[in-house]
Design goal:
Blueprint (H helix, E strand, L loop, with lengths): L3 H15 L4 H10 L6 H10 L4 H10 L8 H11 L13
Helix pairs in contact: 2-3
């Protein structure tokens, strides 16, 4: 089973590390757009990996991340999206 919280946490952390941005810096950047988060609250959210999509997008936006690579996740989703089985067609509801 996929642990999505871990994947999204790692994705956000990697984008912060690529840019040399600490969680404290992130709190200041979020404050500039009116989002009040402390370093401690950001630490907690990222540690759990359970934060809203809005928070995720706010973070990516303020750090200047306009594109993320999620091909790995798309490939695993594609394999479970459609089962590899034959479907029986119903004729006249039978």
């Amino acid at each position: 089973m996929t642990d999505w919280n871990t994947k999204v946490k790692r994705l956000l952390k990697s984008e912060l590390i690529k840019r040399g941005i600490s969680n404290y810096d992130l709190s200041l950047m979020l404050a500039e757009i009116g989002i009040k988060e402390t370093k401690a609250s950001i630490d907690s959210k990222i540690s759990r990996g359970s934060f809203s999509a809005s928070f995720f997008l706010q973070c990516l936006s303020v750090i200047g991340c306009n594109k993320i690579e999620i091909e790995e996740y798309e490939a695993s989703l594609m394999s479970v999206a459609e089962p590899n089985v034959e479907y029986n067609k119903l004729i006249n509801g039978k």
